[in-house]
């Protein structure tokens, strides 16, 4: 028997205990061990009932992703779980922790289920471009009904033990120790003479074509562009084709197997792995001890500062929040309370939890009160002089060893480090707006940042529920630097004749949640104009000439908040083409002697996206991003680059860097060296027939 599964019998109750840390994944050793335990149970007349449970912090939390893309070794999970259906004695799954994917399918293949009260259940396969392939789409509807099964299988979300019991997916919830409760449950089955209760012996719930149609439309909106959710819906329908249960399982597995090799699954698995890889900073010793952060401080309580305070307090971190004056402090405190009160009113936050979060926040108007903080995050206005003054103050009032981090989105961290007088303690921690919601955190290592500071901010980011990615110092770091190239090309395309709607449609069709011009209207064109002004000294004459944003702001058109920007908006903020924009573009072209032309979708897409790929390659060239992983993770989580393409660098690899380079060279000939000089890394890799990842 495989060493990952132990088997023992006591008083007629057999137990197969899986022990494969950290999450008891369904690796080959586990599958082989379960097969052996099942055979021993079947052949043991003295064993009346079998309990399957896991050691450690969780029940089986899914497949072993390390085995994806490799030849699978028998027994494979779908075939193994069919054997559970053939056993003529009852099998009980005793589950705790996260019962996900293949682990959930294992539990459903058992005849009965008892759960720890804190257990969570779900099928996350669609998030990896897959569908449950070991019976999940066939067993779940038979136990839980169609609506619940569709939600679980196609949405990738989770439900708790109580909801699972209400749905019929769990038979009992343990009161106290799960292992003992499972043994008591098993004894009761034996004493009551209950045999197996197999999913395959149960009928599918009554067919509901209208429910399937509604689900298909909903998935088309919520998970636009993704194939896996719709394929998962199709897999559930296999149960209505009148096939024997084993054949339905085979059909489901065939669909899943085909998807494993598909481009979306490869891309989503790449992002899944990359999000874990970016936590390991190259060159940073694994045994480096982070600094202890017990109390954090935030100075600057505008929109970003408030969001950062909320993110910290929500994660259980005491926060000293320093405002410019009492009025700013009061306004911030009121705004934070209002946002959390709204969550309480909606039922998504308990009043007691809100009270605890508010109690973690200590307000002040005196930077000297930050002396108690172990980490201070600066979030004052994006003005270099103002920030230098703040860092000079922080260098004086905080205790030695306190980490001083700036939330700047593009200013030079090295300049702020010099102002502090203690450069080794200084770094960047760039949160994305809204800071208490957005998952990405760009941590920035400056020239003199101490290694243990880097280790601390990476660990702290994870502690507060963020996805930290490390960047070096440059204008805009990773996300905003790459985004600036897309914005540049969007403005140039408008100047050459592409309509805002055509540009945004191409980006939407690719899979982004919003086009660049609609995004500008949403954020506020005054904000974009201010950002352009701050960077004007580094802008080219052509970039300065494409001053559409400045023209609209001068006319009082700030985007959605004024009802007019690139688009016109009604009272519900529904967008429509804006005749004023058409007139503005025409007048701009006439004023500068420009000839407007028809521009196709392919050129729009390639100019917007290849500009970012090329800039990503330059980030790697310059050592700003240590690996392509950081770029892909940052762009997916910070800008909404569609995860099912794998991010810009993975996507470019799939196209072929030679093809990407050829297109960039064509744009270079048409648009000039200032905008389309290819990265030396891109040229070298394309010449070698390699990709960013290979």
TrEMBL record:
Pathway: Lipid metabolism; fatty acid beta-oxidation. SUPFAM superfamilies: 6-phosphogluconate dehydrogenase C-terminal domain-like (SSF48179), ClpP/crotonase (SSF52096), NAD(P)-binding Rossmann-fold domains (SSF51735). Residues 476-569, 606-690 form the 3-hydroxyacyl-CoA dehydrogenase C-terminal domain. Signal peptide: none annotated. Residues 296-470 form the 3-hydroxyacyl-CoA dehydrogenase NAD binding domain. The keyword Oxidoreductase applies. It catalyses: a (3S)-3-hydroxyacyl-CoA + NAD(+) = a 3-oxoacyl-CoA + NADH + H(+). It is found in: Peroxisome. GO terms for biological process: fatty acid beta-oxidation. Gene3D superfamilies: 1.10.1040.50, 2-enoyl-CoA Hydratase, Chain A, domain 1, NAD(P)-binding Rossmann-like Domain. Keywords: Fatty acid metabolism, Isomerase, Lipid degradation, Lipid metabolism, Lyase, Multifunctional enzyme, NAD, Oxidoreductase, Peroxisome. It comes from the Bacteria. Its main location: other. GO terms for molecular function: (3S)-3-hydroxyacyl-CoA dehydrogenase (NAD+) activity; enoyl-CoA hydratase activity; isomerase activity; NAD+ binding. Belongs to the enoyl-CoA hydratase/isomerase family. PANTHER family: 3-HYDROXYACYL-COA DEHYDROGENASE-RELATED (PTHR23309:SF51), 3-HYDROXYACYL-COA DEHYROGENASE (PTHR23309). This is 3-hydroxyacyl-CoA dehydrogenase. The lineage of its organism: Bacteria, Pseudomonadati, Pseudomonadota, Alphaproteobacteria, Sphingomonadales.
């Amino acid at each position: 028997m495989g060493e990952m599964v132990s088997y023992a019998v006591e008083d007629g109750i057999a137990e197969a205990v899986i022990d494969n840390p950290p999450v008891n994944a369904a690796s080959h050793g586990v599958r082989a061990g379960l097969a052996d335990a099942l055979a021993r149970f079947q052949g043991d007349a003295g064993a009346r009932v079998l309990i399957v449970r896991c050691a450690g912090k969780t029940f089986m939390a899914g497949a072993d992703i390390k085995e994806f893309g490799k030849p699978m070794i028998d027994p494979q999970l779908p075939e193994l779980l069919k054997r559970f259906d053939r056993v003529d004695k009852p099998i009980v799954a005793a589950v705790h922790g996260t019962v996900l994917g293949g682990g959930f399918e294992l539990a459903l293949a058992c005849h009965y289920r008892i759960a720890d009260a804190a257990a969570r259940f779900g099928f996350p396969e669609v998030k990896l471009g897959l569908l449950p392939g070991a019976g999940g789409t066939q067993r779940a509807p038979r136990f839980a009904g169609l609506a619940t099964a569709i939600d679980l299988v196609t949405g990738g979300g989770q439900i708790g033990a109580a909801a699972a019991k209400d749905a019929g997916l769990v038979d009992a919830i343990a009161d106290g120790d799960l292992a003992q409760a499972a043994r008591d449950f098993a004894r009761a089955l034996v004493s009551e003479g209950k045999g197996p209760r197999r999913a395959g012996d149960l009928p599918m719930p009554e067919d509901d074509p209208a429910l399937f149609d509604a689900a298909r439309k909903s998935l088309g909106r919520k998970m636009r562009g993704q194939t896996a959710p719709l394929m998962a819906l199709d897999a559930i329908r296999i149960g209505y084709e009148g096939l024997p249960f084993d054949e339905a399982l085979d059909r489901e597995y065939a669909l899943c197997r085909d998807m494993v090799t598909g481009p979306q699954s490869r891309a989503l698995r790449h992002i899944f792995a990359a999000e874990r890889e970016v936590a390991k900073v190259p060159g940073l010793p694994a045994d480096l001890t982070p600094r202890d952060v017990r109390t954090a401080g935030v100075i600057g309580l505008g929109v970003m500062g408030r969001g950062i305070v909320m993110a910290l307090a929500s994660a259980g971190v005491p926060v000293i929040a320093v405002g410019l004056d009492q009025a700013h402090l009061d306004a911030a405190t009121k705004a934070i309370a209002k946002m959390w009160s709204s969550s309480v009113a909606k039922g998504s936050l308990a009043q007691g939890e809100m009270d605890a979060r508010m109690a973690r926040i200590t307000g002040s108007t005196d930077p000297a009160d930050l002396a108690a903080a172990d980490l201070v995050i600066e979030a004052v206005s994006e003005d270099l002089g103002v920030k230098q003054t703040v860092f000079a103050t922080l260098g004086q009032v905080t205790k030695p060893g306190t980490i001083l981090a700036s939330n700047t989105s593009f200013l030079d961290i090295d300049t702020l480090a010099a102002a502090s007088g203690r450069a080794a303690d200084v770094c960047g921690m760039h949160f994305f707006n809204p800071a208490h919601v957005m998952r990405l955190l760009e941590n920035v290592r400056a020239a003199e940042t101490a290694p243990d500071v880097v280790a601390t901010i990476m660990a702290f980011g994870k502690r507060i529920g963020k996805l930290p990615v490390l960047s070096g110092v440059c204008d805009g770091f990773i996300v905003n630097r790459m985004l600036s190239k897309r914005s540049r090309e969007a403005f140039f395309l408008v100047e050459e004749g592409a309509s805002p709607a055509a540009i945004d449609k191409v980006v939407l069709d690719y899979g982004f949640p919003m086009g660049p011009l609609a995004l500008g209207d949403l954020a506020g064109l005054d904000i974009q104009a201010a950002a352009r002004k701050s960077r004007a000294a580094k802008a080219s004459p052509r970039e300065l000439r494409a001053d559409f944003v400045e023209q609209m702001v001068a006319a009082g058109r700030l985007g959605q908040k004024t009802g007019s920007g690139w688009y016109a908006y009604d009272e519900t903020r529904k967008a429509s083409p804006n005749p004023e924009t058409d007139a503005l573009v025409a007048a701009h072209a006439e004023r500068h002697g420009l000839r407007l032309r028809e521009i196709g979708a392919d050129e729009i897409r390639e100019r917007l996206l290849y500009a970012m790929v090329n800039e990503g390659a330059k980030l790697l060239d310059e050592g700003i991003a240590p690996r392509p992983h950081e770029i892909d993770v940052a762009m997916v989580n910070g800008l909404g680059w569609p995860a099912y393409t794998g991010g810009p660098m993975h996507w470019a690899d799939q196209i072929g860097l030679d093809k990407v380079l050829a297109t960039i060279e064509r744009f270079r000939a048409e648009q000039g060296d200032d905008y389309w000089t290819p990265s030396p890394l891109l040229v070298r890799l394309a010449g070698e027939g390699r990709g960013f990842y290979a």
